[in-house]
């Protein structure tokens, strides 16, 4: 699966007048207003929101102070408490003491009553505990879906449920599913029938499998010998989404049986399972569409099944549909029969052996473009009016399929490969075997409106999903704790294949940027090992789909490939794929394949386990002593309490240390040694001026140097930066700013290093410098240090002035220079530098005068739209275009501009509309929230919105999902006050224990604390020298 991360570099925004919050800001509930022009002044309605409390100046007030103080502080700002969570108030009241600070002595009567109550309570608890059929296990008792409880579970009919664990027993295994579905797209319901051929691996009475949300009408059981159907009872245990079939006779080891289940269910209104959507076509006619998204746990909601990745089986799928629809599934269509009632039944060929999460089917009106590639028919599908945008995807897929087949030396095993653009889809894309599903924006390409970044996105996502046909589909992880084996590999192959066949796209720049961001997340205490043993509940499984599984996984493979050589790497993964085709594996199986090629000269398993089984990564400290280089390692940990050392001080990694020194052409000279102890020595043949460790940043670690070496490197960058590669330069910028965050180097030295940027022409170093300085800008700006923030922008501007002046408003140049242009002009316009805004506005008004028909340069289109969106007329015009346009690429640029407005009423309206899902699809909501939260007025509003709509968000996107992770991080990561910390903490505490325990919530709290710590440490220094 490709989680949707439209996290392109966002640059600092314009200053906002300090008067912004001097009076109660109006918030119009525009959601109540259906028209396209949401800002008619006479429709204004006040709706104050909770976190307005946390505006500038209030940061010093702590929420755990006396409630009256708390309220009066807010009242000073003219705020209402109507929407404040009651839990916060209660917790404040509960801790209130007497005025003298002591507790009053209780009377004898009070003591007597208390004792009685306690005795009664103990009696009730004991009675409940010892009751046979304990009600603790009924749904509702364990809202947090905790791992196994020792108490016997009770089925919905009151009988004992024979299985108490979340994981299924292994006594019975499915061999083949025969599934018939009849969806009704207007009533949004479906009827289903599944016949499962089973084999007993041990003698047992019970068949336990997954099923959720089904009305099961009939279950029959048959042995292979008698072939006589017997109707049997079914027990349901919704807490674990399991059902149990009690067989009429003992299932014998090695024997085969058949189970047939008939049921009906609703087509889901979320993005999960078999879900339905409606959309309007070109002529504004309402259309219906149904698709599936099963990974990780939703196949069970479409049909009863053994819904764990290791239970691989084959599938025969039949779908009944209305004539005007097309039905697609994993395999090619075998037959189409018109039934008596006028419906058509499509039957698909029996699938290869695969996991349930890869099963897929789609019913809707679609058109396609196809091409044969050595016996495999590749087709790109879209809704009919967008068929003109599929050509690029087809060409890209054909090239990539060819590449992968020869690189892995294994043919793609199916006769067809469909890639379908779904009109509403939560993830970026999904790798269902033979039926890849995408958002429209990750598959469709429109030459007039898609920028170079859009082209890269489409190419990368296709490369990712195609790689999964081998990594994930052919060879699958045993369990979700190793999901990095799927996602890390697919992500690695995505960049690797692009570099090999679309080298001009410079995708290495994106991979480098992704590594920087991933390490930032991995340096937090809330991080986790990518191969974790404690993954069981649905939230824990959902949470494994985070950027660490994807990008840390990919980064570790890059490190290994660079260390072992490309040749050994390729041969090892070919062996791995050959040895484990159609089976399920653990991480160790992968390392074993590598060890077969290293001839015991290197124990890859031992080395890589240090990276996959522990969280975080090493900080390597380097010191020069003559010809000797002393190196040592420790964990790089951004600790919220710096005085406390990380508990895992004993962490040790086996680190491939690569390096370059002055005077050596390192690209031809492999200087690598393995540091597998706390410290070590590298002996050079001559004394050097400087050393740069972690060549091209292929290693997953940060490097810190002694003062003299930092100075020598900074000097080298000023004299001639091009001695080092652009990756190395970006790496130095990243490392020095991260080290400044840790307090290992001064912020001043970090700025000293980027002083060379005046001579920088490459995209990666400039992007990284802008990203790092933007983080600082954001903290200063959100805390109200507007003057300081402005001085920071001027400092950065002076460094990049000449590069900005050289830019033109065109699409000319290589993809990399085009992206640099987009980044630089966006920065300049956001800060009204160099007449940038005036130029952008002129382009915008010319475009508007042509009624949006004149074509704009695609790479700067967002910047132009943002300038226009700042005007009243521009914003409305953009919104009208958003609703009527057919290019997702253009719509996304418009949406980003709309969400970058400084008008809180418009921003609130956008978020509300996206939650409704009609005018703006709900799939865009997390992007809108994150965009809104980047800017000053919006960052308070976005958090308010998340709080108010939390239950709807969780219902739509699932607790723990990538989208929820992205919404939580996006709406809180710029907070830096104690008041915000308390507020975020109290809000999540008041939800459920499972919510508060979510890793993304813990991460959000940690990030706020680190922001506070950073400001405390650096504010004075910044004020002094900036
Ligand atoms: Zn994936």
How is this structure best described in words?
This protein has 1026 residues and is α+β, with helices and mostly antiparallel strands. It has 31 helices and 29 strands. 40% of the residues lie in helices and 18% in strands. Strand 9 (273-280) and strand 10 form a beta hairpin. Helix 6 packs across helix 7, helix 12 (587-595) runs antiparallel to helix 13 and helix 17 (763-782) packs antiparallel against helix 18 (786-805). The protein is globular. Residues 6-107 and 122-149 have low confidence and may be disordered. The structure holds zinc ion. Zinc ion (ZN) binds at residues 1-2, 431, 464, 468, 487, 490. Residues 1-2, 431, 464, 468, 487, 490 line the site of zinc ion.
Unreliable spans: 6-107, 122-149
- How much of the sequence lies in strands comes to 15-25%
Number of helices: 31
Strand order of the largest sheet: 5-4-8-2-1-11-14-13
Bound molecules: zinc ion
Mean pLDDT: 86
Distance between the termini: 44 Å
- Provide the helix percentage: 25-40%
Oligomer: single chain
What brief labels describe this structure?
binds zinc ion, 1026 residues, five-stranded mixed beta sheet, alpha+beta
How do the strands and helices of this protein lay out in sequence?
Elements: H1 67-76, H2 86-94, H3 108-130, E1 172-184, E2 189-200, E3 204-210, E4 215-223, E5 230-231, E6 234-237, E7 242-251, E8 256-266, E9 273-280, E10 286-293, H4 299-302, E11 314-321, E12 326-329, E13 333-338, E14 344-348, E15 361-364, E16 367-373, E17 376-382, H5 391-408, E18 416-422, E19 429-430, E20 435-439, H6 452-468, E21 475-477, H7 484-501, H8 508-522, H9 538-543, H10 547-564, H11 566-580, E22 583-585, H12 587-595, H13 604-612, E23 618-625, E24 628-635, E25 655-661, E26 672-675, E27 679-683, E28 691-693, E29 702-705, H14 707-719, H15 726-742, H16 747-753, H17 763-782, H18 786-805, H19 815-830, H20 836-849, H21 861-869, H22 872-884, H23 888-898, H24 904-916, H25 925-934, H26 936-948, H27 950-957, H28 962-972, H29 978-989, H30 993-997, H31 999-1025
Helix pairs in contact: 5-6, 6-7, 7-10, 8-10, 8-15, 10-11, 11-12, 12-13, 15-16, 15-17, 17-18, 18-19, 20-21, 21-22, 21-23, 22-23, 24-25, 24-26, 25-26, 25-28, 26-28, 28-31, 29-31
The protein binds zinc ion (ZN).
Zinc ion binds next to helix 6 and helix 7.
């Amino acid at each position: 699966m490709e989680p949707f991360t439209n996290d392109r570099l966002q640059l600092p925004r314009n200053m906002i007048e300090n008067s912004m919050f001097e009076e109660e800001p109006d918030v119009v509930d525009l959601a109540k207003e259906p028209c396209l022009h949401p800002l008619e002044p006479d429709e204004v309605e006040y709706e104050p929101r909770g976190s307005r409390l946390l505006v500038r100046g209030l940061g010093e007030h702590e929420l755990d102070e006396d409630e009256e103080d708390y309220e009066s502080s807010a009242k000073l700002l003219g705020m209402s408490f109507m929407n404040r969570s009651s839990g916060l108030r209660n917790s404040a009241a509960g801790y209130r003491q007497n005025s003298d600070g002591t507790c009053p002595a209780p009377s004898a009567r009070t003591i007597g009553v208390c004792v009685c109550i306690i005795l009664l309570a103990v009696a009730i608890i004991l009675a409940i505990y010892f009751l046979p059929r304990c009600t603790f296990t009924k749904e509702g008792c364990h809202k947090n879906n905790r791992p196994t409880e020792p108490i016997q579970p009770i089925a919905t009919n009151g009988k004992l449920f024979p299985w108490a664990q979340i994981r299924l027993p292994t006594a019975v295994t499915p061999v083949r599913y025969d599934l018939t579905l009849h969806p009704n797209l207007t009533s949004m319901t479906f009827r289903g029938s599944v016949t499962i051929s089973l084999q007993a691996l041990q003698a047992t009475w019970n068949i336990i499998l997954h099923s959720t949300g089904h009305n099961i009408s009939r279950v029959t059981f048959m042995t292979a010998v008698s072939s006589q159907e017997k109707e049997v009872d079914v027990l349901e245990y919704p807490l674990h989404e399991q059902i149990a079939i009690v067989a009429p006779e003992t299932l014998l080891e090695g024997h085969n049986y058949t189970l047939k289940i008939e049921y009906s269910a609703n087509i889901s209104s979320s993005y999960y399972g078999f879900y339905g959507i409606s959309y309007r076509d070109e002529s504004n006619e309402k259309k219906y569409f149904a698709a599936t998204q099963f990974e990780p746990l939703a196949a069970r909601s479409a049909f009863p099944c053994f819904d764990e990745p290791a239970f691989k089986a084959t599938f025969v799928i039949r779908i009944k549909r209305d004539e005007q629809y097309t039905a697609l599934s994993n395999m090619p269509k075998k037959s189409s029969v018109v039934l008596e009632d006028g419906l058509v039944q499509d039957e698909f060929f029996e699938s290869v052996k695969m996991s349930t999460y890869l099963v897929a089917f789609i019913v809707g009106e679609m058109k396609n473009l196809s091409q044969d590639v050595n016996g495999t028919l590749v087709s790109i599908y879209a809704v009919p009016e967008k068929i003109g945008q599929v050509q690029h995807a087809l060409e890209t897929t054909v090239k990539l399929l060819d590449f992968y087949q020869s690189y892995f030396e294994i043919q793609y095993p199916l006769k067809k490969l469909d890639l379908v653009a779904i009109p509403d889809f939560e993830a970026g894309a999904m790798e269902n075997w033979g039926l890849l599903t995408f958002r429209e924006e990750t598959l469709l390409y429109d030459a007039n409106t898609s920028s170079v970044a859009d082209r890269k996105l489409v190419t990368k996502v296709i490369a990712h999903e195609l790689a999964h046909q081998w990594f994930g589909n052919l060879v699958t992880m045993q369990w979700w704790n190793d999901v990095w084996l799927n996602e890390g590999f697919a992500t690695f192959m995505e960049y690797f294949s692009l570099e090999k066949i679309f080298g001009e796209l410079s995708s290495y720049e994106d991979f480098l940027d992704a590594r920087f961001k991933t390490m930032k997340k991995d340096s937090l205490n809330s991080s986790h090992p990518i191969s974790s043993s404690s993954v069981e509940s649905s939230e824990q499984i959902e949470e494994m789909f985070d950027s660490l599984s994807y990008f840390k996984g990919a980064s570790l493979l890059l490190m290994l490939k660079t260390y072992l050589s490309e040749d050994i790497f390729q041969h090892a993964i070919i062996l791995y794929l050959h040895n484990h085709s159609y089976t399920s594996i653990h991480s160790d199986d992968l390392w074993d394949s590598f060890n077969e090629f290293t001839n015991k000269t290197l124990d890859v398993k031992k080395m890589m386990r240090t990276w996959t089984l522990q969280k975080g990564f090493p900080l390597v400290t380097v010191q020069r002593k003559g010809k000797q280089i002393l190196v040592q390692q420790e964990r790089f940990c951004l600790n919220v309490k710096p005085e406390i050392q990380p508990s895992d001080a004993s962490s040790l990694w086996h680190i491939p240390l690569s390096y370059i020194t002055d005077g050596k052409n390192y690209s031809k000279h492999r200087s690598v040694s393995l540091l597998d102890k706390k410290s070590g020595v590298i002996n050079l043949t001559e004394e050097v001026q400087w050393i740069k460790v972690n060549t091209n940043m292929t290693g997953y670690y940060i490097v810190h140097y002694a003062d003299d070496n930092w100075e020598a490197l900074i000097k080298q960058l000023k004299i001639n930066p091009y001695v080092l590669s652009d990756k190395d330069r970006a790496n130095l910028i990243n490392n020095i700013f991260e080290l400044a965050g840790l307090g290992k180097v001064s912020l001043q030295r970090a700025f000293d290093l980027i002083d060379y940027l005046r001579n920088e022409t490459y995209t990666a170093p400039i992007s990284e410098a802008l990203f790092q300085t933007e983080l600082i800008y954001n903290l200063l700006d959100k805390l109200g240090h507007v003057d300081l923030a402005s001085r920071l922008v001027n400092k950065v501007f002076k460094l990049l002035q000449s590069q900005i002046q050289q830019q033109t408003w065109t699409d000319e140049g290589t993809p990399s220079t085009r992206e640099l242009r987009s980044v630089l002009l966006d920065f300049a316009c956001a800060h009204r530098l160099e007449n940038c805004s005036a130029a952008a506005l002129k382009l915008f008004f010319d475009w508007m005068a042509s009624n949006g028909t004149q074509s704009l340069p695609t790479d700067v289109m967002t910047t132009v739209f943002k300038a226009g969106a700042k005007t009243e007329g521009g914003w409305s015009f953009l919104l009208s275009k958003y609703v009527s346009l057919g290019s997702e690429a253009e719509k996304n640029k418009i949406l980003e501009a709309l969400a970058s407005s400084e008008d809180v009423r418009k921003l609130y309206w956008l978020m509300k509309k996206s939650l409704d899902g009609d005018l703006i699809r709900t799939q865009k909501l997390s992007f809108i929230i994150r965009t809104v939260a980047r800017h000053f007025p919006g960052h308070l509003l976005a958090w308010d919105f998340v709080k108010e709509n939390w239950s709807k968000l969780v219902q739509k996107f699932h607790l723990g999902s990538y989208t929820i992770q992205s919404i939580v991080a996006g709406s809180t990561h710029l907070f830096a006050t104690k008041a915000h910390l308390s507020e975020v903490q109290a809000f999540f505490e008041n939800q459920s224990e499972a919510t508060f325990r979510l890793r993304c919530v813990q991460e959000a709290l940690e990030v706020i604390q680190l922001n506070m710590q950073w400001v405390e440490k650096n504010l004075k220094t910044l004020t002094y020298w900036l």
